[in-house]
Amino acid sequence: MGKRHAFDEIMGQSGSATPRPELAALGRWIDETPDGELRRRQQSAEATFRQLGITFAVYGDSDASERIIPFDIVPRIFLADEWARLSEGLIQRVEAINAFLDDIYGARKILDAGVLPPDLIFGNPQFRPEIAGIRPPHGIWAHICGIDLVRTGPDEFFVLEDNARTPSGVSYMLENREAMLRLCPELFREFRVAAVDSYPDRLLETMKSVAPNGVVAPVCVVLTPGHYNSAYYEHSFLADSMGIELVEAADLLVDDDVVWMRTIAGRVKVDVIYRRIDDDYLDPLVFNPNSMLGVPGLISAYAAGNVALINAPGNGIADDKAIYSYMPEIVKFYSGAEPKLPNVETWRCREPQALKYVLDHLEQLVVKLVDGSGGYGMLVGPTATKQEIEDFRAALIAEPHRYIAQPTLALSTVPTLSDAGLSPRHVDFRPFVLMGSKGVQVVPGGLTRVALKEGSLVVNSSQGGGTKDSFVLMDGGNVQRQAQSHGGMTQSQGA
């Protein structure tokens, strides 16, 4: 693989002295706003985040148990036509993920057709035989998906991984936008930006739409493991934004296959639970018997059709990176069409030929654990030390089935405020897709994660990454080109 320059999303192809025409207004804003002023606004946003308690925990870090994710003041921008193409691909993929989950826990037609090797399902720790045969209300498994995307060129977007278990980060999407509206209102006068603040309403609508049949006014709750969890701020933020209760396991009980919430006014029947607890800890009677975080009898109530769980138990298998490598075939099997969003080229190390190639090219590749997340258990060959490469070589030879490998992509860059001023930094993107009984919707925005270290490709917050606001432009993009009645921040940000 030859060295390839990264695509600059604002300036266009590498070496250009002027921004892409559609983004000229952002280029002017960057040029006309002094670095010191950008830095002041950025620090103001971070001070607000700290005040609000928007923090995450880094497990195993003795220095600081909680910290904010650094915020960058220069937004990332998607043009309306780019977003339309992305949305089509995201909807197709999430529908395929849902069909796949419904199938492998049901008829297993994809295995009968020989599209996937059965051991990839049945030998997978994320496959939950305990729930095989249980059908979730309305047949919806993947209610909330975060599909991680990377960009390598003007029209080149790839799916990096799928998150159908408990995708996090939506609170950062919402708080980043709030900060930008307050600190950079002039940008919303320049651009017609699609609103993201309707997300809590859309999420609640999705939850209510999958309530068990016959429930007229569903009671919805968010189930959290508690305030020690790294994403606790997000759990409480979403419950508060939706106007529903945030509960822990001790607040719920199951009686005769019905879930009840304990309140000071007595028991209240619960119909829909947005659970932010992993399968292992969800119900000690079915999964880990030592779990203190789960609700005994919850899966029995779920199997009886008396409660909807968002996302459905067993979804973790759709996040597995070995399954990811088959997603083009999975999409085609269930949709009958080629994927609109391609995967990154992937070598499955469980296959002898692929393993040989990976071992021969370790210094050029990114190698990942199939069940890894958060940037852990990963080798980035071009930036790794000789010792790290040799350690990974030994791990691959010992347990090849646990790894996949991908080429080191030239991820696109967006100008980012660094100690030395504005500099290009690599980004990825997590849009959020909601699926309810009334269909699939893509939230017009998402979480842009940025690698703050120069040259780094690792954007994960636990590995020193930050976030940016993500502008999705409505048709026409620049307010200057619109009739006056359609301009301005209020119109752009209206729900």
Automatic annotation (TrEMBL):
Membrane-spanning parts: none
Gene3D superfamilies: 3.30.1490.270, 3.40.50.11290
Start and end residues of each Circularly permuted ATP-grasp type domain: 75-451
Pfam families per the UniProt record, alphabetical: CP_ATPgrasp_2 (PF14403)
InterPro entries: ATP-dep_Glu-Cys_Ligase-2, CP_ATPgrasp_2, UCP005522
Superkingdom of origin organism: Bacteria
Stated name of the protein: Circularly permuted type 2 ATP-grasp protein
Naturally occurring in which organism (per UniProt): Sphingomonas alpina
